[in-house]
Specification:
Blueprint: H1 12-38, H2 42-61, E1 122-124, E2 141-148, E3 160-169, E4 172-181
Antiparallel strand pairs: 1-2, 2-3, 3-4
């Protein structure tokens, strides 16, 4: 009598191979999810950095771009930086892109009052214009670089500025560039 053996179930080798394949598939899926979750906050950090950079850029370009410091008594009559108190290269010459002594972004009495005053400005931890720290942005830093670029546009070098605002947080870095042309140099703020 011939008896046929019917196999019911799986062998041990088949079971081990199945477990290894399923384990690898689960490990691969979890690795992809881990990378996705780890980088899911990056858009938020980038958006916050962009918002800070845009805000600081707007603050800067809303200031006047005059030959003389807005506190200079010769402001409205100056046709060049030589007409400022102290003459060209003097303390009131705004084409030097150096703020006057004592001026600060956070001062009510002697604030930064011209575009060029922001050259070299840095913030470690983002603050409001009144100096109040924004605790949620404590890990962000901002820096401003301003250069005379009038010659690029066929003008005198000091007739146009390139403003670069850079905001960083960890490995995330955002830079915005803007240009400001001197169009109303005698307008008092």
């Amino acid at each position: 009598m011939c008896t046929k053996w019917r196999q019911a179930g799986v062998t041990l080798i088949e079971l081990v191979i199945f477990i290894v394949i399923v384990g690898l598939a689960v490990a691969g899926t979890l690795a992809v999810m881990n990378v996705t979750i780890r980088h899911s906050s990056d858009p938020l950090m980038r958006k916050q950095a962009i918002a800070v950079a845009e805000s600081l850029m707007e603050e800067i370009v809303l200031h006047p771009f005059t030959y003389c410091d807005p506190d200079d008594p010769n402001l409205t009559g100056a046709n060049s930086s030589a007409d400022c108190t102290g003459g060209a290269g003097g303390a009131n010459d705004e084409s030097l892109l150096v703020k006057q002594a004592g001026e600060s972004r956070y001062s009510n009495t002697t604030p930064l009052d011209n575009v060029g005053d922001y050259n070299g400005f840095t913030m470690t931890g983002i603050t409001e214009i009144d100096g109040t720290a924004i605790t949620e942005l404590a890990n962000y830093n901002a820096a401003v670089a301003i250069t005379n670029v009038g010659a690029t546009f066929g003008l005198a070098a000091t007739e146009a500025l390139q403003i670069i605002v850079t905001v960083t947080s960890g490995a995330e870095s955002v830079s915005l560039t803007s240009y400001r042309f001197r169009y109303a140099p005698k307008d008092a703020p």
